[in-house]
Amino acid sequence: YGKNTIKFLRLHREGKKHFVKEVEVCAHLRLTSPQEYLEGNNSLVIPTDTIKNIVLVLAKKNGIPSLEQFAIDICNHFMTTFCQVAYVKTYVQEVPWQRLHEDGVPHIHSFICVPDGIRFCEAEQCRNGPLVVFAGIKDLKLMKTTQSGFEGFYKNEHTTLPERHDRILCGELFCKWSYGECKDFDFDCIWKKIRECILEAFAGPPDCGEYSPSYQKTVNCIQMLVLSRVSQVQVIEAVLNNTFYNVVDMKNLGLTNDKEVLVPVEAPYGSCACTLGRK
């Protein structure tokens, strides 16, 4: 049991310059005894309102040095403070605020919310067990307008999809990865490096791109690049929910539409998923 959707903004001031972290936290506990379920005995139950207040107090006292460290702090607090807690799981996701720039100059106290993917993390701790940390990015919308196709697929009497050697590749990406033993990791730096790998693998070189024969191959390329460059990542899961675009037929309007006006296919969506790890 636990408390979901604990939302708050942590404001940190350094002189006139302000720093913000707005997050949403879910914290769940498993106790050493199920007596509250079986017997209605609540003597070991930590109220969910108390769980919420603990999260807020930790944010006040410790700040949020990184999402992962904050999740670890929450796990450590419940494990070291309450002997009846057998397991704690913490999920933290961040609102994507970025510092506002005016003529290239960073503003000291103004920010803009940029929807370029939501960062999240999870930390799990069992009593007498290892701390397990996951991190990820979700709702990352990506598109490339060429260098993508889908050909040579299996066909039977139910197949109506035409082969395409040049199409738009567009989708919403979810990635989640696990770390090995956490030893003084710079979680912010690692997360940014993984995000750069994702964008590079999706797009290819900036002057020419890289051909994608399928959504599945693109997902695998993302995972392979992350594992090759970020040694701290042990397993990476990726899900790409696809958005398809159809070219509008403008013949009746007396116009030739050379893939210049397209409309998104609202439903159904395609999706591909893969989990890849080291040996």
Automatic annotation (TrEMBL):
Give the pathway: Purine metabolism; urate degradation; (S)-allantoin from urate: step 1/3
Entry's InterPro entries?
Uricase (IPR002042)
Q: Which gene encodes it?
A: Uox
Query: Which residues bind 5-hydroxyisourate per the record?
Result: 48-49, 150, 167, 216, 242
Single GO molecular function: urate oxidase activity
Q: Which reaction does it catalyse?
A: urate + O2 + H2O = 5-hydroxyisourate + H2O2
Query: Which residues does O2 bind?
Result: 48, 242
State the protein's name. Uricase
Give the record's GO biological process terms.
purine nucleobase catabolic process; urate catabolic process
Gene Ontology terms: cellular component: peroxisome
**Keyword Metal-binding annotated:** no
Q: Which residues bind urate?
A: 48-49, 150, 167, 216, 242
User: Which organism is the protein's source?
Assistant: Melanocharis versteri (Fan-tailed berrypecker)
Q: Which UniProt keywords apply?
A: Oxidoreductase, Peroxisome, Purine metabolism
User: Which SUPFAM superfamilies does the UniProt entry name for this protein?
Assistant: Tetrahydrobiopterin biosynthesis enzymes-like
**Keyword check for Oxidoreductase:** yes
Q: Name a Pfam family for this protein.
A: Uricase
Q: Which domain of life is it from?
A: Eukaryota
